[in-house]
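I have been asked to look over a protein record a colleague put together. What it holds is a sequence and that sequence's fold in token form. Please read both lines and tell me whether the tokens look consistent with the sequence. I do not need a full report, just your reasoning and any doubts. This is what I was given:
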Amino acid sequence: MTCGVCHPKMFRENGGRVFGYMTADTPSHAVDTAKPLYFMGCEHIFCDLPIGHVRHRPAFKKLHRAVRHGDRIILPSLKVLGSTPATQQQRMAEFEAKGIGIFVLTDQPNRAGHSHLAIVA
């Protein structure tokens, strides 16, 4: 399901907390990536940065421990869950089995070629 216009209030109406998770290549990239997550009402944003050529995910592990039934996680893209569709689906299923909602922000161009923020839930 995709929605072209969503308001941050929608994530708080049914209770639960709102978390964000992202990965970034540099601290300045992290700031740019975090802005839409803050806009959507994330109370806590977890961010993993690469160390050398290996991307460790300590923040992802902390997020996994922090969330509980009824919480929501907002992601800037599905890629932050893993590099393959199988890994992404597995991680989404783990959260959904715990009763945690996953929302993915995506920058999609409309027919006129202008970008708008959409949410894929």
